[in-house]
Design goal:
The complex is a heterodimer of chains A (303) and B (380). By secondary structure, chain A is mainly alpha-helical. Chain A has one domain: MetI-like fold (Orthogonal Bundle), CATH 1.10.3720. Helix content of chain A is 75%, strand content 1%. Chain A is built from 14 helices and two strands. Chain A has a two-stranded antiparallel sheet with strand order 1-2. In chain A, strand 1 and strand 2 form a beta hairpin. The two termini of chain A are 37 Å apart. By secondary structure, chain B is α+β, with helices and mostly antiparallel strands. Chain B folds into two domains: 170 residues, P-loop containing nucleotide triphosphate hydrolases (Rossmann fold, 3-Layer(aba) Sandwich), CATH 3.40.50.300; 125 residues, OB fold (Dihydrolipoamide Acetyltransferase, E2P), CATH 2.40.50. Helices cover 24% and strands 34% of the residues of chain B. Chain B is built from nine helices and 20 strands. In chain B, the strands form four sheets. Chain B has a six-stranded mixed β-sheet, with helices on both faces. In chain B, helix 3 crosses helix 4 and helix 3 runs parallel beside helix 5. Classes of the chains: A mainly alpha (303), B alpha+beta (380). At the A-B interface, helix 9 and helix 10 of A face strand 6 and helix 3 of B. Chain A: Its main location: membrane. Chain A: Belongs to the binding-protein-dependent transport system permease family. CysTW subfamily. Chain A: It is a multi-pass membrane protein. Chain A: One of its GO terms (cellular component) is plasma membrane.
C-alpha cells in the first residue's frame, strides 16, 4: 500500500469509532435533549414545537424561541423524581457493593486456580448469558416467592416457620441485580488478578507482611483498575435498570428507570421523560469524567 | 584499605573445624507430588560467605532458596539459621530477605516506597525510614530516581532498586535468585563486581542461585554444584574448576576433554591409563583407582598444547592428529584436533602477541600433548 493510501486507511480506522459515537450516541442524545426542552401536546409527535423546514430560518428561530427549561424545573418541584433518582443511586450503590463482595473472592479463586482449569471456570462464569436475561429474572420470581423454592428449602430445614417475604421488596431487587451483573464484575477483576506477578505477594511477605496485609497492600491495590471497571459496569446500568425492579420489586420500589417508563408510556409525556433521561445521563457521566481525569493525572504524575 | 583480594584469600571458615556454620541444611528433602526437587541434602554455609548454588534448571537450587526464604517447607529434614530451626517460621518472620529473579518491584509504588516497604512493616519511625532509604539509594546510586515508578527505570536500575529493597532491612542473609539474569552481558559483568564489593561492605551472608557458571565463579567464595536435587560438589571456584570430583562437575563447569581408559599402573602418586584409541596417559593423581579398572582423565582445553613437532614427553601424554577446526575468539584460539581414532580433542591457546601468523592451519598434521599435572583422574 502506498504511503498516501495507508495514511487514508489510518484516518479511516480512527474515524469509525467517532462516527459510531456520533450516529448512535450524540445524535440520539441531542434528539432527546431537544424533546426535553419542548412541551407536551396532543399531536403527532406528542410535543411542540415541531420544526418545519418549509418556514425557512425564521421558522427555526421561532421554534428555538419556544424552547424552555420548564420540564427541568418540574423535575425539581415534584419530590417523586428526586426520590426516584436518590433511591436508584442507593439501590445501584448497594447492589454494586454486594456484587463486588461476592465477585472478588470468585475472581481471586479463579486466578489462583491451576492454569489448566481456568478456561473452564471462565466458561462457567459466562455460561448464564446463554439463557435469555428475561427468563433468568422470571426464574428468580419462582425461587423467591412465598411458596417458592427458597422458602420451601428453609421451611424443610426448619430454619423458619413462616415463609419470608422477599419477592416484591428491595431485597429481591438486590438479589436480581447482583445475580444478573455478577459476570461483569468477575471478569475485569479476574483479568487484573490473572496477569499479576505472583512473586509480588511473596516479596511483600518476604519484607515482613502477613499474608492478609500483603493482600491489601499489594494484591488488592493492584487489582483496583479491575475493581473500578467492574463497579462501573455494574453501577451504571443498575441505576437505570427497569426490568429487574419491575419484575422483582414491589409497588413501593421507586427507581428512575421505572419512572421514566411510566412517563413515556403511561402518561405519554415525552418531554418530561426526555428531561428525566438527560438528568440521569448527567448524573452518571459527570462523575465518571472527573474520575477518569483524576486517574489520568495520577498516572502521569510519576513521569 | 585492604584490597578485596587480600581479605578474600584469608577467608576460609569452611576449612576451620572450629567455626560453626551459619546456615545448615540437614538431610533436607522436598517433594512435589512424585517429583523429588531436593533429595536428602545437607549443606553448611558460613557467616559472611558469598555462596553460590549452581546448576541447570530443575536441579532444585531455586527450591532450596525458597525453603530458606520460607515460601516452601521441607518435606523432611531441617534448616538451621544462626542456631535456630526455621521449621514453622513464616517468611515474614525470618531474618532473611530475597532479591527476586523478576525483581518483584511493586509497580504502584515509587522507588522510594519500594525500598521503604519492608521498614514500614517493621514499624520503624518515619524519620529513620527516610534516612535509611536515602542511604540505601545512595549505596546503589539511585538517589536521583527516588520519585520514579519502576516502569520508568531501565532493567539495570530496576535490579538496583530490588537490591536496595532487599538489603534495606539489614537481613542476616540475603538470598539472590538469578540476580543478574535479566541484564545484558556488559552490565552483568560490572554488576558482579559491585555485588561483591557490596557484600564485603555490608558484611552480609549472600546465597545466590544461578545457572551461569561464569557468574558463580566470579562472585562466590564457594560453589555448590547441584543436579537432580543433590549437591555434587561444594568447593571454591579454583577447586571446582581444577579438581572436579566427578565427570558431571568436570563437564558442567567450563570445557573439558575426558579420555576414558583402563588403569594399567598406580604408583608414587602417579596413575597410568591406556585408552582404546592407543593414548598412554601418565599423570599425577591423588585418586588411586584400582589397577585393571576403568577410569577417566579430564583435562581442560587450555592445558592441552598443540604443535608441529613431536614433544619430549612422547609417547606418554601425547597424540598425533589433524587440525579439524579453528575458532578465533580474539583473546584466544580454539583448535579442534581429530586424533587417529576419530575422537576430537579441544585445545585452546592464548593470543598473547598481536597479529602473529599462526603456524598451525587447517588440515595440518599436529601433535597434541599435556603435562602430567594438567588434569584430574576421575573414578567412575
Amino acid at each position: 500500500m502506498s504511503k498516501f493510501g495507508s495514511a487514508i486507511f489510518n484516518r479511516l480506522v480512527i474515524i469509525i469509532p467517532y462516527a459510531w459515537l456520533l450516529v448512535f450516541f450524540l445524535i440520539p442524545f441531542f434528539i432527546v435533549f431537544r424533546i426535553s426542552l419542548s412541551e407536551t401536546a396532543v399531536a403527532m409527535p406528542p410535543y411542540l414545537p415541531v420544526f418545519n423546514w418549509d418556514d425557512g430560518l425564521s421558522g427555526i428561530f421561532d421554534g428555538i424561541r419556544q424552547f424552555s427549561i420548564a420540564n427541568y424545573l418540574w423535575l425539581t418541584e415534584d419530590s417523586l423524581y428526586i426520590n426516584a433518582y436518590g433511591s436508584s443511586l442507593w439501590i445501584a450503590g448497594v447492589s454494586t457493593l454486594l456484587t463486588l463482595m461476592i465477585a472478588y473472592p470468585i475472581a481471586y479463586a479463579m486466578a489462583q486456580a491451576p492454569g489448566s482449569i481456568r478456561p473452564t471456570l471462565l466458561m462457567l462464569v459466562i455460561l448464564p448469558f446463554w439463557t435469555s436475561f428475561l427468563i433468568r429474572v422470571y426464574a428468580w420470581i419462582a425461587i423467591l416467592k412465598p411458596e417458592g423454592l427458597f422458602n420451601q428449602l428453609l421451611l424443610t430445614l426448619g430454619l423458619i416457620d413462616q415463609p419470608l417475604i422477599i419477592l416484591n421488596t428491595n431485597w429481591a431487587i438486590y438479589i436480581g441485580i447482583v445475580y444478573s451483573y455478577l459476570p461483569f464484575m468477575v471478569l475485569p477483576i479476574y483479568s487484573a488478578l490473572e496477569k499479576m506477578d505472583h512473586s509480588l505477594t511473596e516479596a511483600a511477605q518476604d519484607l515482613g507482611c502477613t499474608p492478609i496485609s500483603a493482600f491489601w497492600q499489594v494484591t488488592f491495590r493492584l487489582s483496583m483498575p479491575g475493581v473500578i471497571a467492574g463497579c462501573m459496569l455494574v453501577f451504571i446500568p443498575a441505576v437505570g435498570e427497569f426490568v429487574i425492579p419491575d419484575l422483582l420489586g414491589g409497588s413501593e420500589t421507586l427507581m428512575i428507570g421505572k419512572t421514566l417508563w411510566n412517563e413515556f408510556n403511561a402518561n405519554r409525556d415525552w418531554p418530561v421523560s426526555s428531561a428525566v433521561a438527560t438528568i440521569l445521563l448527567l448524573i452518571l457521566v459527570v462523575p465518571i469524567m472527573f474520575f477518569q481525569q483524576a486517574q489520568a493525572k495520577a498516572d502521569s504524575e510519576g513521569r | 584499605m585492604k584490597s578485596l583480594g587480600s581479605i578474600r584469600r584469608s577467608f576460609a571458615p569452611w576449612s576451620d573445624p572450629a567455626s560453626k556454620p551459619f546456615i545448615s541444611f540437614k538431610n533436607v528433602t522436598k517433594t512435589f507430588g512424585d517429583f523429588v526437587a531436593v533429595d536428602n541434602l545437607s549443606l553448611d554455609i558460613f557467616t559472611r560467605e558469598f555462596f553460590a548454588l549452581l546448576g541447570a534448571s530443575g536441579c532444585g537450587k531455586s527450591t532450596l532458596l525458597r525453603m530458606l526464604a520460607g515460601f516452601e517447607q521441607p518435606s523432611s529434614g531441617e534448616i538451621i539459621l544462626d542456631g535456630q530451626s526455621l521449621a514453622g517460621i513464616p517468611p515474614y518472620k525470618r531474618p532473611v530477605n530475597m532479591m527476586f529473579q523478576s525483581y518483584a518491584l511493586f509497580p504502584h509504588m515509587t522507588v522510594e516506597s519500594n525500598v521503604a516497604f519492608g521498614l514500614k512493616q517493621d514499624g520503624m519511625p518515619k524519620a529513620d525510614i527516610a534516612e535509611r532509604v536515602d542511604q540505601m539509594l545512595k549505596l546503589v546510586k539511585l538517589d536521583k530516581f527516588a520519585k520514579r515508578k519502576p516502569h520508568q527505570l531501565s532493567g539495570g536500575q530496576r535490579q538496583r532498586v530490588a537490591l536496595a529493597r532487599s538489603i534495606a532491612k539489614r537481613p542476616k542473609v540475603l538470598l539472590l535468585d538469578e540476580p543478574l539474569g535479566a541484564l545484558d552481558k556488559k552490565l552483568r559483568e560490572e554488576t558482579q563486581f559491585e555485588l561483591m564489593d557490596l557484600q564485603q561492605q555490608l558484611g552480609l551472608t549472600f546465597v545466590v542461585v544461578t545457572h551461569d557458571q561464569e557468574e558463580a565463579m566470579t562472585m562466590a567464595d564457594r560453589i555448590a554444584v547441584m543436579a537432580h536435587g543433590k549437591v555434587i560438589q561444594v568447593a571454591t571456584p579454583p577447586e571446582i574448576y581444577e579438581a572436579p570430583n566427578s565427570r558431571f562437575v568436570a563437564d558442567f563447569i567450563g570445557d573439558v576433554n575426558i579420555f576414558d581408559g583402563t588403569v594399567s599402573a598406580v604408583s608414587d602418586g602417579f596413575v597410568r591409563i591406556e585408552t582404546e584409541g592407543g593414548l598412554s596417559i601418565k599423570v599425577a593423581s591423588q585418586e588411586t583407582p584400582a589397577v585393571g579398572g576403568k577410569a577417566g582423565f579430564a583435562v581442560r582445553p587450555e592445558k592441552i598444547r598443540v604443535g608441529n613437532t613431536q614433544p619430549a614427553c612422547a609417547p606418554l601424554n601425547a597424540a598425533q592428529g589433524v587440525v579439524w577446526d579453528i575458532g578465533y575468539l580474539g583473546d584466544m584460539t580454539v583448535f579442534h584436533v581429530k586424533l587417529g581414532d576419530g575422537r576430537v580433542v579441544k585445545a585452546s591457546s592464548l593470543n598473547a602477541v598481536r597479529l602473529v601468523e599462526d603456524p598451525i592451519g587447517y588440515d595440518q598434521d599436529v601433535w597434541v600433548w599435556f603435562d602430567e599435572n594438567a588434569g584430574v583422574v576421575l573414578r567412575d
